Amino acid sequence: MQRSNKVIAEFFAQGYRVSGTYVITKRLLADEIYDPTTNYFLLEEAYLSPIIDPARISAYYALMLFDKSNLDFVLTIDKKDGLRRDQSYGMGNYQMPIFLTVPFFEITGSLYLLNKNFNPRLYLSADAGIFITLLDVTVRSTFNPEISYQGGVALINRAHISFFGEKSG
Amino acid sequence: MARILVIDDNYDMLSMLQIILEKHGKHEVIACTNGQDGLQAAFARPPDIALVDVMMPGMSGYEVVKKLRADGRTQNIGIIVLTARGQSVDREAALAAGADDHMTKPANVEELLKHIDALVQRTPGKAPAVDVPVLPVFSVKGGVGVTTIAINLAAVLQQIAPTVLLDLAPACGQCAFYLGIRPEKHWGQYVENPKTPPASLMRQHSTGLQVLLAPPVPAQYSWPGKDIVETLLVQLRSMGRFIVVDMPSLLDATAKAVLDQAQHIVLITGDDAPAVQVTRATLQALQVWKDRLLVIRNATAAGPHPPADVLQKALRVPLAVDIAYDPNQATAVPKGLPLAALQPQTSLTLGVKRIVQIALGR
Fold first, then answer.
1. Do residue A150 and residue B105 have CB atoms under 8 angstroms apart?
2. Is ipTM > 0.85 here?
3. What DSSP element (H or E) covers B82?
4. Is pTM, for the whole model, over 0.90?
């Protein structure tokens, strides 16, 4: 089907899963999320589920406003929907499989780096932006590991990361 | 071609799906923008397949699926959940609610059509309308042996594959009498409460025929409307490979709804002057279905009968089958058995077998 100007993404924050529509007017979803000059993010047709029962829709809101700093991560199925404009031209040649945790979730995926010399501490503390972009992502619920989510891209709030490491094996 | 109900609150998505399914898939589409309207449309005229979005205000897609599965009219339809929530947990929830399949938006057109085709073919109960031939046996004139032909036709078809016989007489249908079945259950109860699963009203004859009888008492139940009879036929299709309908001697909207779905219409005529006159008038009224008509002479009395070519000239149509008077029929009725099940070589049985051969293209 044709691509529309609407992106459906999943937003995870403080024990909730919200599936909603972001209407692309001027900026891509990732550009909007990454933008450090804005605190809030507007979502349309938002469906709320508790992460302990993530398929159950407990509420519907035609419009929903997020405080971006409270988001744990954002997940898109399609890679194109989750990349910033600059990332869509290329993201680096070195792929680094990593593992990290945010509240209630364990996340694995790949970072794309410009060179091999990867320093996690430097990466988390010195790089710009409050989110990091992870590709080919699998997310597991900490308390229900049999519940998992797959995504092309996850935008993860750096400030909410507790454990971060290279993925073994 | 299948009839597909699409329920999606997004107008763009709804119109896109409608175009894809109609133009590319050659399917008939009923489009609804919310769960409540979708359920009403499904219950009024059950589709072959329902394509249901999950995220809709008011009633979620999961609730819609559960309600479709809970209702006798729609419990056997194919259901695909088409949603932007594409995680495994969402797939499991869709299947747990009763869906047959789960697809993630935006779906690839070819993949979507493939899933629909697979679902349509998966079970006999979910097969499209054309897969289960409906064979109404009809005459506007009474006394020409419509019921006799209908029950024998059903009995011969039953020897090939499971067959459903529907006695659509307004009341006091004769199938119960001819087959020796007590009409305790009948379609009147379905008309009274369309949520009644037709399977619970069927009577099984010793030949294996599944029979839905007519109400035994006149004017006790309403005559089913067009929508009800269409819905009933959809449900009966899940119970057999053939449906034979013993039609009433009238041509109202309900009767036309049955004829609309017929693969062949078995039009019975006599050969006396009133019968010829009525048949000629009926043929005019049935012009729209002329390609599906099988005109049958059924001689119901002994004595001289005009030659077939004379009758054909009078009717201005060829006879598909000419059945001579068969005195054995009188002996079958007290036994509660179709003659075709008792005597395979009598003129009536052979005539009915010929109808089956023509109807099945053999």
1. no
2. no
3. strand B78-83
4. no
